[in-house]
Specification:
77% helix; 277 residues; mainly alpha; two-stranded antiparallel ribbon; 8 helices
């Protein structure tokens, strides 16, 4: 059997929905975490440079930003691990479903993959036996999880609900920066607005970013326009937009995972395979 024919037969049993969802999940999480981290850093610099002269006014904000940045590190690690598990579950359940419908056959390539996962023949000597035994224990433990698709459906459903809240929260800074950018556009084109330039302001206090006693707390007129023209503001604004897009991509990937896992579980359940196979 040639290499191309072997790969073609392996691709027949590949869960394409899970593959697309995994790629989308990795892309979305990387975009959300990377851009979100840098956007929070840029926000911290803008606040302490232009909106407050007293460190105590934004000390709490800095602590919150640093806490969110640590949460981002954990979120990235968790999603890359869980995405890999969901992909493995997709291969596992899709293979079982296609065996039920009779359009999946074990190939030489598949046998070789199974031998690699299960450790194949134990190597000669105590060291080879110990490595094979350890790998078999890991695969056995993983197989117990992969043999319960209902657990993945429940966990993914709960995770989707939580990430829906994260997606909504990621829209808040985009909204704040967009309002500020819109105000700057009005200042730059005074003929398009009836308000006085001096009354057009961006107030960080009204969004809860700073306390009401913070000074100055807001920037108005030409000073605000000069802030909007800085590279820091432009970069932070676009980073928050990219983080929002990443959150949306991750949400779509979770929905795809949930639909695919629910379909496979329902087929196995209706076909009498139960929740464990």
């Amino acid at each position: 059997m040639g290499l191309l024919e072997c790969c073609a037969r392996c691709l027949v049993g590949a869960p394409f929905a899970s593959l697309v969802a995994t790629g989308l999940c990795f892309f979305g999480v990387a975009l959300f975490c990377g851009c979100g981290h840098e956007a929070l850093t840029g926000t911290e610099k803008l606040i302490e440079t232009y909106f407050s002269k007293n460190y105590q006014d934004y000390e709490y904000l800095i602590n919150v930003i640093h806490a969110f940045q640590y949460v981002i590190y954990g979120t990235a690690s968790f999603f890359f691990l869980y995405g890999a598990l969901l992909l493995a579950e997709g291969f596992y359940t899709t293979g079982a479903v296609r065996q039920i419908f009779g359009d999946y056959k074990t190939t030489i390539c598949g046998k070789g993959l199974s031998a690699t996962v299960t450790g194949g023949q134990k190597g000669r000597g105590s060291r080879g036996q110990h490595q094979a035994h350890s790998l078999e224990r890991v695969c056995h433990c993983l197989g117990k999880w992969l043999g319960h698709p209902d657990k993945f459906v429940g966990i993914t459903y709960a995770l989707t609900v939580v990430w829906l809240l994260v997606f909504a929260c990621s829209a808040v800074p985009v909204y704040i920066y967009f309002n500020t950018w819109t105000t700057c556009q009005s200042i730059a084109s005074p003929s398009k607005t009836s308000a006085s330039i001096g009354t057009l302001c961006a107030d960080a206090r009204m969004y809860g970013v700073l306390p009401w006693n913070a000074f100055p707390g807001k920037v108005c007129g030409s000073n605000l326009l000069s802030i909007c023209k800085t590279a820091e503001f432009q970069m932070t604004f676009h980073l928050f937009i990219a983080a929002f897009v990443g959150a949306a991509a991750t949400l779509v990937s979770l929905l795809t995972f949930m639909i695919a896992a629910t379909y496979n579980f329902a087929v196995l359940k209706l076909m009498g395979r139960g929740t464990k196979f």
